[in-house]
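Blackboard transcription, Thursday session:
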Amino acid sequence: MFSVKMTDTKLLKDMFQAIAILVDEATFNVNPENIQLRAMDPSRVAMIDFQWPKTIFDEYQCDQPQKICVNIAELLKLLRRTGRDETVQLTLTPDTPKLQITITGKYTRTFNMPTLEPQEEETPTPKITFKTEAKATTEGLKQAIEDAQLVSDHVRVEADPEKITLQATGDLMGATIELKKGSDALLDLQTQEPSKATFSLSYLAEIIKAASATSEIATLQFANDMPIRIDFHQPKEGKLTFYLAPRIEVE
Amino acid sequence: MKRPFGRTKKIAKKKTNLSIFDVIDKPTLVNELKRNVDLWTTRQNPTGLCVACKGSRMLCGKTRCPVLVRINSFIRTFPLIKNVNIDGASPPSVFVGRIGYPYVYAGPLVPPIHEDTSHYDLPELWFGKPIDEIVNFRSMLVRGKQRIHVNRFHEAGKIIDRTRELALASSAIDVELSLKRPPRGCLVFSDGVQPFGPSAPIRDLRVGSSRWDHNIEKAYYDTDLKARPAVLELYEKGVLVTRIQRAFSVGALGVGQQRRLVPTRWSITAVDSTVSKGLMKQVRTFPLVGEYRLYESSYLSNQFEILMIPDAWSYEAIEAWYPGTVWNPSGRKVVMYGDSEGYEGRTTYASIGGCYYAARLAVCELLVKEQRQATIVVLREARPGYIMPVGVWQVRENVRNAMKNRPLKFNTLAEALQRIAAQFRIPLKQWESKSTLITRARLQRKLTQYT
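(Written on the board underneath:)
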């Protein structure tokens, strides 16, 4: 028996939206303490690591650890029907393979959707020694990425002790975006050595846009030509972390 | 602006342009054309190249003169089509124009001969035929036409009803086509136009009895079945894409009230796109191919190299046109166009048009057959020998042919690219810089490399 209830339906929707960026069929690990998901996108370029403790939910009931796999786009379709001041309850009982979604507001509706064969394969966490750690507002990041997207499909992220520079070079146009340490956008910056790495903007933009709906502040960690780790701070002991592999610049 | 039904735009009086005789250097052709002056009109090439060239100097850069190819087959049809009554076996075939949508010209295509003509309108059987043969039998198809609003069938009367019936026939069908005037051909001195037979407005149409393809018949009578599932179901049951497209085009599929004629051109791409979208859904669930693969095919001076990369489904099509080929008539440099989509597919129309979808269908067919997933890059080089466009079927069948052959297998991307470089005349650098997916495969690292 697994059952959770949540009144903050916006947060729930935004979180599933962020998960849907990378995965179609999401396998959640649920246990009496929390709910987790770790998965890579189909081309194994990006990874999501998500965890919500039971305290985020208004009600949380889970008698034993289990895996639940659902089509996340279909689930979102149903969740979009929730309005403000409504409550969502997700229930999975052992006697049926269907997940039940109950939305309660002025009236009550109950949807059910099939659960799928869960993925058994565990997603390993990349092992990286990061050289730079920066704390930024998600709004600042989102704006910076949107600027870069105007001119190119990839961006180079560079850090020195004073600032982070985003360098985008397209076929015809280019852009340089600077985030200075201590500014409104960049709250903190620590660099052991100057670091730079290039990332695909299509991934970066989608991740940052979706995840920033759930979080105000993010921690970035990266190193020379290594994957970037972006940690979107969550309330209580929640966790929403993305990894994104770099593009290597030859020539 | 809506035009009242049935009234057509007044076109300036058509003049038969006699300067055509200056353009052709062969006295026999000229005599034949002169004798049948009322059966054709001309449209000039604005560049005036043809007048200077007279079909012999190849000023347009092609290896043969497309106008001469067309005139040759035209002349052969003259004796057969002088009549206002065309009596023959339709393959079956219909054509729905797109000009003036939603008021379009629709009608059957009928050759003036009684034999098995079924291959006249079945591109699935055309692969490998030389361009002259295709132009020949396409020019035999006389097009009867009537202007009609795409979903007001009842206003148009029995002619359009019979046209729609005819389109669903499973084999060649006897047709008596009576026209308001002798059909007229148009000799177009430019390359953007597919070879086409002569046409005239219909006076009356009589259609012999026919058997319908029973799968299509079932979909036709199911007026609650939406067009998309209908198309997919027919494809699953093995109905040829051309037949589905023909039924789609005459509004034989879809929910009853919403059925409509779909211009032939649009319907081809609509069916290619719908079917391949259905196949892509399956492809995404399959395991990746084990190695880099290269499939090759060449037909009508179109060289195809299809690269499979062992990665999640994504698709890209790039075509390069030599100066002097169909869509790049006056340029001096090679022109390259391309478009691509990621794992999730696309929601906007591909900038390079119908061939994007035709090739996508052909590659998906193989992936589904082999139960494999891959990143696909379709590269096409159109060379000067491609003297006139023949339609997107060329792309579909050419890629299908490539897929039939045993692929070349490589362990690394670099080796596969080496082979591509050797097959193409355009330098690899240009292909690489144009291709989003090849660039991605070269530069994008994977997280699995860091665990």
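Lecturer's comment: The radius of gyration of chain B is 23 Å.
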